[in-house]
Each structure stands twice: as C-alpha cells, then as structure tokens.
Design goal:
single chain; mainly alpha; elongated
C-alpha cells in the first residue's frame, strides 16, 4: 500500500528501499514471489513497481527499476510476471522506455527486458507481446547500432543479449535474415566491438543462432552478407611468420597479413560461440567448401595451438575434424539429415565430458 500513486514521495522512497533490500537476496525474492504469486494472490508488489517506472520523480522510478531487475533475474518469477494477467503491458512499457531517447531509466529497462527473455518459453511470450504492440526487430537493431542513442548517457548494451535470446525463435531469425531488411549486415561490425563484452557477446550469440538455419547458409556466406571474415577475425592473432604467402592469400582479405598487435578474443565464451557458429556453417556441403576455400582451417589451427580453455579446444576440434575430411569421406550433403541413435548421442556426450575433465 505504500508503493501506490497516492502515497507521499518520502513514504514511497522508504518502501522502495525496503523492497530493494529484499530483492538483494534469494530469500527476499522468494518472499516477494510468495506474496505476489502464491495461490489466489494478486501481484501487488511487482505490479506497483511496474507502475512506478512511470513516476515523475526519477529517483523513485530508478529504484523501482532496480527492484525489478533483481526480481526478474529469478527465472521462476520472470515466468510468473509474463504470465500475469495484470502485467500484460510490461513488454510494451519497457520498450517505450528503451526507445525514448530522453528516458533516464532506459538502461535498467533493457536489463529487465533481457531477464524476461532468458529461456525459450519466456522468449515466445515476449515475442507475442512484441508482435501485438508492433515492436519490430529491425527497430531494436537500429537502436542497438546507434552509439549515444540515449541523450542521458544510458548504455543500451543489453539490447544485444535481448536479441540473442529472442533469436532462439525461428520466426525471429527469419526477421533478422530477411534479405530485404539488411538486418544481419548491421550486426557484423560488432564481432570485434571493444567497448562492451556484453554487447559483443550478445551480437555473436545472435549470429551463432542464425547459423542454425541451413536454408540461409548460402545467403550469409555469400557476398551480400559475407559472415565468414567477421567470425574468423576474433579468433585470429598476428599472422605467423612461418605461414606461407600462398596460405595467407587464400584467406579472406580482412585476415591477410595481420599486425603484431592483433589480439585473439579474450572471452572464452565468445570464442566458443564463434566456433559453434562455424560448426553450424559446416552442416551443408556448400558451407564446408566455402570454409575450405577461404582457408579457415589455418586460423583454427593457429588458435588451437595456443588455446588453453578445454571447452574452446573441443569446439575448435569439432570444426577442424570436419574441414580436414574430404567430401568423399563425408559423403553427405547435409549433416543434419543424419539420424544419430540415442545411445550414440549419450556416448558422444560422455566422451566430451571425459575430454573436458582431462
């Protein structure tokens, strides 16, 4: 009752500080969840926080947003928020904050939005709300790509994880890969983005997810998108002196004769995602031939020599094992057409687990 519009600002501030303190612990969030989402309960606290995002006093709106960041970070509570009949406009409200150039809580809004899209079921619910409110992927990408979009210095880097999360959905990937909208091309420069690992990781996660759609491989590997150099660059260090000119000149132009200060991507999770994307691009014969023609093997071989992370090593070896085989040895147009028996899948998982433990 102290978080309602009728309460005095000082009372609302004190109540918000109390709730913010609660949301700082798992036990506190569970207590709010029990009050708001227990049997026959109404989400009074969470709903009041959502309403306070529009409060005229910035400090109150900011504290409400911080509370919602913590609450929505709990996966179970995030799902219940999305399923609540009393918060059907939350996605719309968050997007309005994000797209408003003058909003002072836009950064917090992106973080809440990102929390609400962490699993595929939640993504589907958010995507449905986005469609109902004409919130387009193209517009999210536009805002993401604008440096200094927000006039109050709000950093909207979490738009990239939102995009990555949503791109788990085939219909979102179709939007990103629409040949008429040129969306995926706008994301490519961020594979080596230096100012935010969150933004870079989210973009690379999006590109990785798009590589799962084999029907688009010719498009994204072709000259209209040319994704391969952008995926290989973060994996490449300085060009080794021992590398023959012939091998160097087979590489895409962007990867030839790299300077001594060229660094390999530092984040192992990002390196792994890139390697997973390359593995997906090897699903069809066309993709495998492009990677061989562009001498991707050389970049992967050099990466493998110095790689210390076991998961990244395994991901690199998965790609290398495909590329070193001839097409006669593979004798498949599309790896995804192969049905692998369940017992072999379990065996492969056990082998991978054993490799990672060594």
């Amino acid at each position: 009752q102290f978080l309602t519009d009728n309460s005095r600002p000082d009372v609302k501030s004190l109540a918000l500080q109390t709730v913010l303190g609660l949301t700082g612990s798992k036990e506190g969030i569970e207590s709010i969840r029990a009050v708001d989402f227990g049997a026959n309960k109404s989400p009074n606290i969470t709903l009041s926080l959502v309403k306070l995002l529009d409060d005229d006093q910035h400090v109150l709106a900011k504290d409400a947003a911080l509370c919602l960041i913590n609450i929505s970070a709990d996966a179970g509570t995030a799902k219940q928020i999305l399923q609540s009949n009393q918060m059907t406009d939350l996605v719309k409200k968050l997007y309005e904050k994000i797209s408003d150039e003058n909003c002072k809580i836009a950064e917090a809004a992106t973080m809440i939005f990102s929390n609400l899209t962490r699993d595929i079921m939640s993504c589907s619910q958010v995507w449905e709300k986005m469609q109902e409110n004409s919130i387009h992927i193209e517009r999210i990408v536009f805002i993401l790509c604008q440096e200094g979009y927000n006039k109050h210095g709000q950093n909207l880097r979490y738009l990239a994880p939102i995009l990555s999360n949503l791109s788990q959905l085939p219909e979102v990937r179709r939007n990103i890969l629409d040949k008429e909208q040129c969306i995926i091309q706008r994301l490519l420069p961020f594979t080596e983005y230096a100012d935010s690992s969150v933004k870079k990781g989210g973009v690379i996660g999006t590109l990785r997810n798009c590589c799962f759609d084999v029907d688009y491989h010719e498009f994204i590997l072709g000259e209209d998108v040319d994704i391969l150099p952008r995926l290989l660059l973060p994996l490449a260090g300085p060009t080794p002196e021992s590398l023959e000119d012939e091998d160097i000149e087979k590489l895409p132009l962007e990867l030839q004769y790299l300077d001594d200060d060229k660094k390999v991507e530092e984040d192992p999770d990002i390196r792994k995602m890139i390697l997973e994307a390359l593995t997906q691009l090897c699903a069809k014969k066309y993709g495998r031939e492009v990677l061989r023609e562009k001498n991707a093997y050389v970049i992967l071989r050099e990466l493998h020599k110095d790689e210390q992370d076991r998961e990244v090593l395994l991901a690199a070896e998965n790609v290398i094992d495909i590329l070193i085989k001839t097409e006669q040895e593979i004798n498949l147009e599309n790896y995804k057409d192969t049905e692998v028996p369940a017992d072999l899948i379990d065996k492969f998982k056990q082998m991978d687990a054993a490799y990672l433990k060594d």
